[in-house]
Amino acid sequence: MARAYGGQAAQSGSLFDEAEEQAAAAAAPLAVRMRPRTLDEVVGQKHLTGEGTPFRKLTDNDAPMSLLLWGPPGTGKTTLAYVVSQVTRRRFVELSAVTAGVKDVRAAVENARRELGMSGRQTLLFIDEVHRFSKTQQDALLPAVENRWVSFIGATTENPFFSVVSPLLSRSLLLTLTPLGDDDIRGVIRRAITDERGLGGSVRLDDEALDHLVRLAGGDARRALTYLEAAALGMPAGGLIDTAALERAVDRAAVRYDRAGDQHYDVISAFIKSIRGSDADAALHYLARMIEAGEDPRFIARRIVVHASEDVGMADPTALQVAIAAAQAVELIGLPEARINLAQAVIHLALAPKSNAVIKAITAASADVRAGLVGPVPAHLRDAHYAGAQALGHGEEYLYPHDYEEGVVTQRYAPDSVADRVYYEPSAHGMEARFAERASRIRAILRRPGGSAAR
Fold first, then answer.
1. 94-97: long-range contacts at Cβ-Cβ below 8 A with a sequence spacing of 24 or more?
2. Contact at 8 Å (CB) between 96 and 128?
3. Across the 455 residues of the chain, what is the mean pLDDT of every consecutive 10-residue run?
4. Which residues contact 447 (CB under 8 A, 6 or more apart)?
5. Which of 270, 323, 356, 406 has the fewest CB atoms within 10 Å of its CB?
6. 25 vs 69: CA distance, rounded Å
7. Which CATH class is domain 262-351?
8. pLDDT tens digits for 321-380?
9. How far is Cα 428 from Cα 431, in angstroms, rounded to an integer?
């Protein structure tokens, strides 16, 4: 069922008098009461709400619009839609794709057309979690968007290029919202404590509890306000919410973790060393500890990707693929769901056979380069495609490996200064044992004595 807001009741007659409306507003959740009323009150997302941005221009000029807001939960998608309706004085109708169907969409559009024809008043149709609509349900929106019977705003936590039909996507301006920073969340919390629409200064929050609340929020303003409201419930006037009170309210122990201090480095060090030591259980503990403390999941993902090559390497070449897939999942869907992808990568890497041959190889090669062992590129390997190259002897006596049975031929590739260096020394662990055998056989062919002049 659609819900309509934005002053509609005052203009068309209401079942509630003003006192009842105020009582209903007071009973609303703290996150709803603290919803910004203007774009200047919106915390974060300045790349969307700042002066001169397309979204700001559309709003300030009361222009018809069709928008898709894509971002993690609690970043302000519903808030932006609501603010647009307030600033432009449009009738605000909200549908949730979780419960609404095609019938509800068509009814909302028909009511919008009727309102437009009778009073000339525009309707802003906001559909939360629009990605949950089927193709048929999304297609039902197209006539209304195409003919501007409504200004449409759809909110999604999933990549709209995969979850929204192309016709609707092409008719909409796609705006990406980012998780709020710690300072943004602190600002939201402090405003809620002092603002009359919020707690009106009825409680206080100590600094340690504030830091814990910011970590728990994980960039989600709605979650921060929900936890704050739970902690303030039953608190005496002027009471102090400390960490213990917050822990009791949200049933979440405070994880002592300073993202800029020792804990940050100690925990990530223990995390990597646990994976290197093949202790999946310990690695999962440290992973959970970082996630619960609000560590940036992208930082965790980056370390996993590095570890996949540094400590697993060719012993299990699929480890890097799994690690990169987990990192992409973090970017695509974010927390909390991405913790599952991270955990899968951690388990895979912890249980994989280990080899540091890759990092040893590139380290040794880099050391020689830094030491000046570079040397000229052998003439037979130089580029022979430009005019005059042949006169310089470039490319002469080059042996094309595909012309030989094994695809390998005795030939010199490295400069003379490092011709006998061996950088990659495979271990006998996992898949790398197979690579070790092949690497040895290839080197024997490449460096066979008595070869051609190109060797």
1. 94/2, 94/3, 94/4, 94/5, 94/126, 94/127, 94/128, 95/2, 95/125, 95/126, 95/127, 95/128, 96/127, 96/128, 96/129, 97/127, 97/128, 97/129, 97/130, 97/131, 97/132, 97/133, 97/137
2. yes
3. 48 47 67 86 86 86 86 85 84 88 88 88 90 89 89 90 90 88 89 91 89 81 88 86 82 52 73 91 89 83 94 93 94 86 94 92 89 80 63 68 82 82 85 83 79 47
4. 410
5. 406
6. 26
7. mainly alpha
8. 999 999 999 988 887 888 999 999 999 999 999 999 999 999 989 998 888 888 887 877
9. 8
Beta-bridge mates of residue 240: 204
Residue 296: predicted pLDDT: 82
What pLDDT score was predicted for residue 22?
Answer: 56
pLDDT in tens, 208-230: 888 888 877 877 888 889 889 98
CA distance 150 to 6: 14
- Taking phi first (over 0 means left), then psi (-120 to 50 degrees means alpha), and beta for anything else, what does residue 395 get? left
- pTM of the prediction? 0.53
66-70, strands of its sheet edge to edge? 3-5, 91-96, 123-128, 151-156, 66-70, 173-176
Question: The dihedral of CA 172, 173, 179, 180: what is its sign?
Answer: negative
Count of CB atoms situated within 10 Å of the CB of 453:
9
Q: Which DSSP category does 219 fall into?
A: T
- 3-176 folds as Rossmann fold (3.40.50)
- Give just the sign of the alpha carbon dihedral 268, 272, 274, 279: positive
Domain residues of the chain, as ranges?
Answer: 3-176, 182-250, 262-351, 357-446
CA distance 211 to 207: 6
In sequence order, the 6+-apart residues with CB closer than 8 A to the CB of 149 are: 109, 112, 113, 116, 123, 143
Beta bridge partners of 96: 128
182-250 is classed in which CATH architecture? Orthogonal Bundle (1.10)
The CATH number given to 357-446 is 1.10.3710.10
